Amino acid sequence: MSYLNIILSYPKMNNPRKVFSQIYDDCVDKIYRFIFFKVSSQEIAQDLCSETFLRGWQAFKNNKKKIENPQAFLYQIARNLVVDHYRQKGKMQTVSADCVPIIDPGEDLEEQALLKSDLDTVKSALAGLKDEYQEVVVWRYVDDLSISEMSKMLNKSEGAVRVTLHRALKSLKNRISDTGVTQA
Length: 184
What we know:
The chain has 184 residues and is mainly alpha-helical. It has two domains: 1-96, RNA polymerase sigma factor, region 2, helix turn helix motif (Rna Polymerase Sigma Factor, Chain: A); 108-179, Winged helix-like DNA-binding domain superfamily/Winged helix DNA-binding domain (Arc Repressor Mutant, subunit A), CATH 1.10.10.10. The chain is 71% helix and 0% strand. It contains eight helices and no strands. Helix 5 packs across helix 8 (158-178) and helix 7 (147-154) crosses helix 8 (158-178). The longest helix is centred in the first third of the chain and has 24 residues, at 16-39. The protein is globular and about 55 Å long. The N and C termini lie far apart (40 Å). The relative contact order is 0.10. Residues 1-10 have low confidence and may be disordered.
């Protein structure tokens, strides 16, 4: 059952915990990936994802009106938490376990290095895009959201979202080609 069906049946359900639990199950991976792409640290992404759902739950249980689009609502909370994180980042220093790679001896090291290099190139190019472009690329190609879902989240028409996505991809392609990476 999708979160949309759960929300549509929300007024009929007596247990808001069950409703929010289903929303959590449907959205947690997407929200985590979104945050992780923004902060590039597993620990920070996990913390911010937890905080996103805690705030989402508090708003959900205290809100007398139903939340029309809980996924968009959670993305907005996540966006705000990422902005707050970067505002506070200058005030504190963090050490990430991501700095020390763990190598699986069963994997081909050359293949792993090439894949990591390609991912780093894309991640670096993506980080150089403006926020709106980053979001639409991640939502479309990582979270596999439809144009319709993204238009609701951004409060834009589907046509405007398509244009934004096209411009984002063009900008991403230009940034990658500027780094000198050859495409297969």
